[in-house]
Specification:
- This protein has 340 residues and is of the alpha/beta class.
- The chain has one domain (2-335): TIM Barrel (Alpha-Beta Barrel), CATH 3.20.20.30.
- The chain has helices at 26-39, 64-74, 91-104, 119-124, 132-151, 188-197, 208-223, 244-254, 267-273, 282-285, 300-313, 325-335; strands at 2-6, 43-46, 79-84, 109-113, 155-158, 163-167, 180-184, 200-203, 231-237, 239-240, 297-298, 317-321.
- The strands form 3 sheets. Strands 1-2-3-4-7-8-9-12 form an 8-stranded parallel barrel, surrounded by 4 helices. A two-stranded antiparallel sheet has the order 5-6.
- Strand 3, helix 3 and strand 4 form a beta-alpha-beta unit.
- Helix 3 (91-104) crosses helix 5 (132-151).
- The longest helix has 20 residues, at 132-151.
- The protein starts with a strand and ends in a 5-residue tail after the last helix.
Protein backbone atom coordinates (compact mmCIF):
# COMPACT_ATOMS: atom_id res chain seq x y z
CA UNK A 1 0.00 0.00 0.00
CA UNK A 2 1.20 3.49 -0.86
CA UNK A 3 0.23 6.38 1.38
CA UNK A 4 -0.77 9.63 -0.24
CA UNK A 5 -2.39 12.76 1.11
CA UNK A 6 -4.39 15.63 -0.29
CA UNK A 7 -2.48 18.88 -0.08
CA UNK A 8 -4.78 21.27 1.85
CA UNK A 9 -4.88 23.96 -0.84
CA UNK A 10 -8.30 25.03 0.48
CA UNK A 11 -7.23 25.43 4.11
CA UNK A 12 -8.95 22.26 5.28
CA UNK A 13 -11.46 19.55 4.45
CA UNK A 14 -14.42 20.27 6.74
CA UNK A 15 -17.28 22.36 5.46
CA UNK A 16 -18.71 23.07 8.90
CA UNK A 17 -15.47 24.06 10.67
CA UNK A 18 -14.29 27.54 9.72
CA UNK A 19 -10.69 27.35 11.03
CA UNK A 20 -8.95 23.97 11.04
CA UNK A 21 -5.52 25.37 11.88
CA UNK A 22 -4.14 24.75 8.39
CA UNK A 23 -3.92 27.95 6.35
CA UNK A 24 -4.08 27.93 2.56
CA UNK A 25 -0.59 29.38 2.28
CA UNK A 26 2.65 28.35 0.60
CA UNK A 27 4.69 28.23 3.86
CA UNK A 28 2.19 25.79 5.39
CA UNK A 29 1.92 23.39 2.45
CA UNK A 30 5.68 23.47 1.87
CA UNK A 31 6.30 22.53 5.52
CA UNK A 32 3.63 19.83 5.29
CA UNK A 33 5.01 18.24 2.12
CA UNK A 34 8.60 18.23 3.36
CA UNK A 35 7.58 16.65 6.66
CA UNK A 36 5.31 14.13 4.94
CA UNK A 37 8.10 12.60 2.89
CA UNK A 38 10.24 12.34 6.03
CA UNK A 39 7.62 10.31 7.92
CA UNK A 40 6.65 7.83 5.22
CA UNK A 41 4.14 9.37 2.83
CA UNK A 42 4.72 8.58 -0.85
CA UNK A 43 2.56 11.07 -2.74
CA UNK A 44 0.58 14.28 -2.51
CA UNK A 45 -2.42 15.21 -4.64
CA UNK A 46 -2.69 18.90 -5.51
CA UNK A 47 -6.32 19.67 -6.32
CA UNK A 48 -7.17 22.22 -9.02
CA UNK A 49 -10.02 24.64 -8.41
CA UNK A 50 -9.89 28.39 -8.85
CA UNK A 51 -12.53 28.95 -6.18
CA UNK A 52 -12.49 27.44 -2.70
CA UNK A 53 -14.64 24.31 -2.79
CA UNK A 54 -14.50 23.70 0.96
CA UNK A 55 -14.54 27.01 2.84
CA UNK A 56 -16.64 29.09 0.45
CA UNK A 57 -15.96 31.00 -2.75
CA UNK A 58 -14.60 34.07 -0.93
CA UNK A 59 -11.95 32.08 0.96
CA UNK A 60 -8.36 31.80 -0.34
CA UNK A 61 -7.14 28.72 -2.19
CA UNK A 62 -3.80 27.90 -3.79
CA UNK A 63 -3.39 27.54 -7.55
CA UNK A 64 -2.45 23.99 -8.44
CA UNK A 65 0.28 24.17 -11.06
CA UNK A 66 2.40 26.95 -9.60
CA UNK A 67 2.17 25.19 -6.23
CA UNK A 68 3.18 21.87 -7.81
CA UNK A 69 6.17 23.47 -9.52
CA UNK A 70 7.34 24.95 -6.22
CA UNK A 71 6.90 21.59 -4.48
CA UNK A 72 8.89 19.89 -7.23
CA UNK A 73 11.84 22.13 -6.40
CA UNK A 74 11.58 21.87 -2.60
CA UNK A 75 10.97 18.14 -2.04
CA UNK A 76 13.17 15.15 -2.81
CA UNK A 77 11.13 11.94 -2.92
CA UNK A 78 7.45 12.85 -2.82
CA UNK A 79 5.43 12.07 -5.94
CA UNK A 80 3.41 15.13 -6.94
CA UNK A 81 0.05 14.26 -8.48
CA UNK A 82 -1.47 17.41 -9.96
CA UNK A 83 -5.12 17.65 -10.87
CA UNK A 84 -5.76 19.08 -14.32
CA UNK A 85 -9.09 19.97 -15.89
CA UNK A 86 -8.91 19.79 -19.69
CA UNK A 87 -11.39 22.60 -20.26
CA UNK A 88 -9.06 25.01 -18.39
CA UNK A 89 -5.86 24.02 -20.27
CA UNK A 90 -4.96 23.81 -23.94
CA UNK A 91 -3.47 20.29 -24.25
CA UNK A 92 -0.20 21.05 -26.06
CA UNK A 93 0.59 23.88 -23.65
CA UNK A 94 -0.21 21.65 -20.67
CA UNK A 95 2.01 18.91 -22.09
CA UNK A 96 4.85 21.44 -22.25
CA UNK A 97 4.25 22.73 -18.72
CA UNK A 98 3.88 19.26 -17.21
CA UNK A 99 7.04 17.98 -18.89
CA UNK A 100 8.93 20.88 -17.34
CA UNK A 101 7.54 20.22 -13.85
CA UNK A 102 8.44 16.55 -14.26
CA UNK A 103 11.98 17.60 -15.11
CA UNK A 104 12.22 19.92 -12.09
CA UNK A 105 11.13 17.02 -9.87
CA UNK A 106 13.43 14.47 -11.57
CA UNK A 107 10.49 12.37 -12.71
CA UNK A 108 8.10 12.66 -9.76
CA UNK A 109 5.07 14.14 -11.57
CA UNK A 110 1.77 12.38 -12.14
CA UNK A 111 -1.58 13.73 -13.38
CA UNK A 112 -5.13 13.46 -12.11
CA UNK A 113 -7.36 14.27 -15.09
CA UNK A 114 -10.59 15.80 -13.79
CA UNK A 115 -13.40 16.27 -16.28
CA UNK A 116 -14.93 19.04 -14.13
CA UNK A 117 -18.22 19.40 -12.28
CA UNK A 118 -18.44 22.96 -10.94
CA UNK A 119 -20.42 24.87 -13.57
CA UNK A 120 -20.60 28.06 -11.49
CA UNK A 121 -16.82 28.24 -11.18
CA UNK A 122 -16.34 27.77 -14.93
CA UNK A 123 -18.79 30.55 -15.70
CA UNK A 124 -17.12 32.95 -13.26
CA UNK A 125 -13.77 32.43 -15.00
CA UNK A 126 -15.22 32.71 -18.52
CA UNK A 127 -14.79 29.02 -19.37
CA UNK A 128 -17.33 27.03 -21.39
CA UNK A 129 -18.95 24.09 -19.61
CA UNK A 130 -19.75 20.98 -21.65
CA UNK A 131 -22.56 18.52 -21.05
CA UNK A 132 -21.56 15.53 -18.89
CA UNK A 133 -20.62 12.96 -21.56
CA UNK A 134 -19.08 15.67 -23.77
CA UNK A 135 -16.68 16.48 -20.93
CA UNK A 136 -15.28 12.95 -21.09
CA UNK A 137 -15.10 13.05 -24.89
CA UNK A 138 -13.12 16.27 -24.55
CA UNK A 139 -10.86 14.69 -21.93
CA UNK A 140 -10.08 11.73 -24.16
CA UNK A 141 -9.13 13.92 -27.12
CA UNK A 142 -7.18 16.24 -24.80
CA UNK A 143 -5.19 13.39 -23.27
CA UNK A 144 -4.37 11.94 -26.67
CA UNK A 145 -2.69 15.24 -27.60
CA UNK A 146 -0.80 15.44 -24.30
CA UNK A 147 0.36 11.85 -24.71
CA UNK A 148 1.56 12.38 -28.28
CA UNK A 149 3.41 15.51 -27.22
CA UNK A 150 5.26 13.54 -24.57
CA UNK A 151 6.13 10.61 -26.87
CA UNK A 152 6.54 11.90 -30.44
CA UNK A 153 9.19 14.23 -31.95
CA UNK A 154 6.44 16.31 -33.57
CA UNK A 155 2.78 15.81 -34.42
CA UNK A 156 -0.37 17.42 -35.81
CA UNK A 157 -3.94 16.88 -34.67
CA UNK A 158 -7.40 17.88 -35.85
CA UNK A 159 -10.42 16.77 -33.85
CA UNK A 160 -13.75 17.90 -32.45
CA UNK A 161 -12.30 20.10 -29.71
CA UNK A 162 -8.66 20.79 -30.61
CA UNK A 163 -6.34 21.43 -33.52
CA UNK A 164 -2.52 21.59 -33.52
CA UNK A 165 0.02 21.69 -36.33
CA UNK A 166 3.62 20.41 -36.29
CA UNK A 167 3.72 20.64 -32.50
CA UNK A 168 7.05 19.99 -30.75
CA UNK A 169 7.32 19.35 -26.99
CA UNK A 170 10.91 19.42 -25.76
CA UNK A 171 12.31 18.45 -23.38
CA UNK A 172 10.23 15.34 -22.87
CA UNK A 173 9.19 14.22 -19.37
CA UNK A 174 11.83 12.38 -17.37
CA UNK A 175 9.45 9.58 -16.43
CA UNK A 176 8.93 7.06 -19.22
CA UNK A 177 6.89 6.08 -21.09
CA UNK A 178 4.97 8.99 -19.52
CA UNK A 179 4.01 10.43 -16.14
CA UNK A 180 1.32 8.26 -14.58
CA UNK A 181 -2.17 9.42 -15.54
CA UNK A 182 -4.95 8.94 -13.00
CA UNK A 183 -8.60 9.92 -13.22
CA UNK A 184 -11.80 9.52 -11.25
CA UNK A 185 -15.32 8.94 -12.47
CA UNK A 186 -18.34 6.79 -11.63
CA UNK A 187 -20.52 7.30 -14.72
CA UNK A 188 -20.37 4.90 -17.66
CA UNK A 189 -18.75 7.60 -19.78
CA UNK A 190 -16.17 8.25 -17.08
CA UNK A 191 -15.28 4.63 -16.51
CA UNK A 192 -15.00 3.95 -20.25
CA UNK A 193 -12.65 6.90 -20.64
CA UNK A 194 -10.46 5.73 -17.77
CA UNK A 195 -10.38 2.10 -18.91
CA UNK A 196 -9.30 3.10 -22.42
CA UNK A 197 -6.79 5.84 -21.75
CA UNK A 198 -5.55 6.16 -18.13
CA UNK A 199 -3.11 4.29 -15.91
CA UNK A 200 -5.04 4.46 -12.64
CA UNK A 201 -8.54 4.98 -11.24
CA UNK A 202 -9.19 7.14 -8.17
CA UNK A 203 -12.44 6.65 -6.30
CA UNK A 204 -14.22 8.50 -3.55
CA UNK A 205 -14.41 6.79 -0.17
CA UNK A 206 -16.33 3.52 0.22
CA UNK A 207 -16.17 0.46 2.49
CA UNK A 208 -13.76 -2.34 1.50
CA UNK A 209 -16.53 -4.68 0.34
CA UNK A 210 -17.88 -2.01 -2.02
CA UNK A 211 -14.39 -1.15 -3.24
CA UNK A 212 -13.66 -4.80 -4.03
CA UNK A 213 -16.72 -5.01 -6.29
CA UNK A 214 -15.92 -1.72 -8.00
CA UNK A 215 -12.27 -2.61 -8.59
CA UNK A 216 -13.15 -6.04 -9.96
CA UNK A 217 -15.67 -4.58 -12.41
CA UNK A 218 -13.22 -1.90 -13.51
CA UNK A 219 -10.45 -4.46 -13.94
CA UNK A 220 -12.71 -6.43 -16.29
CA UNK A 221 -13.51 -3.29 -18.24
CA UNK A 222 -9.78 -2.59 -18.53
CA UNK A 223 -8.91 -6.15 -19.56
CA UNK A 224 -11.26 -5.81 -22.54
CA UNK A 225 -9.01 -3.02 -23.89
CA UNK A 226 -5.91 -5.24 -23.90
CA UNK A 227 -3.89 -2.69 -21.91
CA UNK A 228 -1.86 -3.29 -18.76
CA UNK A 229 -3.90 -3.54 -15.53
CA UNK A 230 -5.08 -0.34 -13.89
CA UNK A 231 -3.85 0.89 -10.54
CA UNK A 232 -6.50 1.70 -7.96
CA UNK A 233 -6.61 4.49 -5.40
CA UNK A 234 -9.22 5.45 -2.82
CA UNK A 235 -9.89 8.58 -0.77
CA UNK A 236 -10.14 8.35 3.00
CA UNK A 237 -10.57 10.79 5.87
CA UNK A 238 -8.69 9.39 8.86
CA UNK A 239 -9.79 9.91 12.47
CA UNK A 240 -7.33 8.18 14.81
CA UNK A 241 -7.91 8.48 18.55
CA UNK A 242 -6.86 6.60 21.68
CA UNK A 243 -10.34 5.12 22.10
CA UNK A 244 -13.22 4.25 19.79
CA UNK A 245 -15.48 6.53 21.84
CA UNK A 246 -13.22 9.52 21.22
CA UNK A 247 -13.09 8.76 17.50
CA UNK A 248 -16.89 8.60 17.23
CA UNK A 249 -17.19 11.89 19.10
CA UNK A 250 -14.84 13.53 16.59
CA UNK A 251 -16.89 12.20 13.67
CA UNK A 252 -20.04 13.61 15.26
CA UNK A 253 -18.35 17.00 15.55
CA UNK A 254 -17.18 17.21 11.95
CA UNK A 255 -20.50 16.05 10.46
CA UNK A 256 -22.64 18.44 12.50
CA UNK A 257 -24.28 19.95 9.44
CA UNK A 258 -24.99 23.67 9.44
CA UNK A 259 -26.68 24.40 6.14
CA UNK A 260 -25.79 28.08 6.36
CA UNK A 261 -22.07 27.30 6.20
CA UNK A 262 -20.40 28.79 3.12
CA UNK A 263 -18.87 25.44 2.22
CA UNK A 264 -22.29 23.94 1.46
CA UNK A 265 -23.19 26.57 -1.13
CA UNK A 266 -21.99 24.40 -4.03
CA UNK A 267 -23.69 21.18 -2.85
CA UNK A 268 -26.47 21.41 -5.45
CA UNK A 269 -23.93 22.15 -8.21
CA UNK A 270 -22.10 18.94 -7.28
CA UNK A 271 -25.27 16.83 -7.29
CA UNK A 272 -26.53 18.21 -10.60
CA UNK A 273 -23.26 17.91 -12.53
CA UNK A 274 -22.00 14.50 -11.40
CA UNK A 275 -23.30 10.98 -11.93
CA UNK A 276 -22.52 9.05 -8.73
CA UNK A 277 -22.98 5.33 -8.23
CA UNK A 278 -24.23 5.92 -4.68
CA UNK A 279 -26.31 8.83 -3.49
CA UNK A 280 -24.38 11.25 -1.31
CA UNK A 281 -26.06 12.95 1.64
CA UNK A 282 -25.24 16.44 2.81
CA UNK A 283 -23.67 14.78 5.88
CA UNK A 284 -21.31 12.89 3.55
CA UNK A 285 -20.59 16.21 1.85
CA UNK A 286 -19.44 17.69 5.17
CA UNK A 287 -16.09 15.95 4.64
CA UNK A 288 -14.38 16.24 1.27
CA UNK A 289 -14.42 13.34 -1.21
CA UNK A 290 -16.80 11.10 0.77
CA UNK A 291 -13.77 10.21 2.86
CA UNK A 292 -15.55 8.96 5.98
CA UNK A 293 -17.20 6.12 4.05
CA UNK A 294 -13.81 4.40 3.82
CA UNK A 295 -14.05 3.75 7.56
CA UNK A 296 -10.64 4.92 8.76
CA UNK A 297 -12.08 5.82 12.15
CA UNK A 298 -11.10 4.41 15.53
CA UNK A 299 -8.04 3.35 17.47
CA UNK A 300 -4.69 2.86 15.68
CA UNK A 301 -5.30 -0.90 15.68
CA UNK A 302 -8.76 -0.50 14.13
CA UNK A 303 -7.56 1.89 11.44
CA UNK A 304 -4.58 -0.33 10.60
CA UNK A 305 -6.91 -3.31 10.16
CA UNK A 306 -9.10 -1.23 7.87
CA UNK A 307 -6.09 -0.29 5.75
CA UNK A 308 -5.28 -3.98 5.37
CA UNK A 309 -8.87 -4.64 4.26
CA UNK A 310 -8.68 -1.86 1.69
CA UNK A 311 -5.44 -3.29 0.34
CA UNK A 312 -7.01 -6.74 0.12
CA UNK A 313 -9.89 -5.20 -1.82
CA UNK A 314 -7.38 -4.17 -4.48
CA UNK A 315 -6.29 -0.62 -3.65
CA UNK A 316 -2.69 0.32 -4.44
CA UNK A 317 -2.94 3.82 -2.98
CA UNK A 318 -4.91 5.43 -0.18
CA UNK A 319 -5.25 9.22 -0.46
CA UNK A 320 -5.71 10.55 3.04
CA UNK A 321 -7.13 13.70 4.54
CA UNK A 322 -6.69 14.79 8.15
CA UNK A 323 -7.74 17.70 10.33
CA UNK A 324 -5.60 19.37 11.47
CA UNK A 325 -3.42 17.96 8.72
CA UNK A 326 0.13 18.17 10.05
CA UNK A 327 -0.59 16.97 13.59
CA UNK A 328 -2.83 14.09 12.51
CA UNK A 329 -0.43 12.97 9.77
CA UNK A 330 2.25 12.70 12.44
CA UNK A 331 -0.08 10.58 14.59
CA UNK A 332 -0.98 8.35 11.64
CA UNK A 333 2.67 7.81 10.71
CA UNK A 334 3.67 7.00 14.29
CA UNK A 335 0.70 4.91 15.38
CA UNK A 336 -0.90 3.32 12.27
CA UNK A 337 1.77 2.78 9.61
CA UNK A 338 3.96 0.51 11.78
CA UNK A 339 0.95 -1.72 12.53
CA UNK A 340 0.12 -2.12 8.84
Amino acid sequence: MRYGFWLPVFGGWLRNVHDEGMEATWPYVKRLAQRAEQIGFDLTLVAELNLNDIKGEEAPSLEAWSTASALAATTENLEIMVAVRPVFHQPALLAKKAANVDGISSGRLSLNVVSAWWKTEAEKFGIGFDAHDDRYERSEEWLSIVDRGWREPSFSHEGRFYRTENTVIEPKPVRTPRPTVWAGGESEAGKDFIARTCDGWLTHGDPPEVLAQKFEAMAERRAATGRDPLRFGVAGFAVVQDTEKEAKAEVARITDVRRSARGYANYQDWIENTQLERRMSIEDYSVSNRGLRTGLVGTPEQVAERIREIEKAGADLVLLQFSPQLEEMERFAQQVMPLV
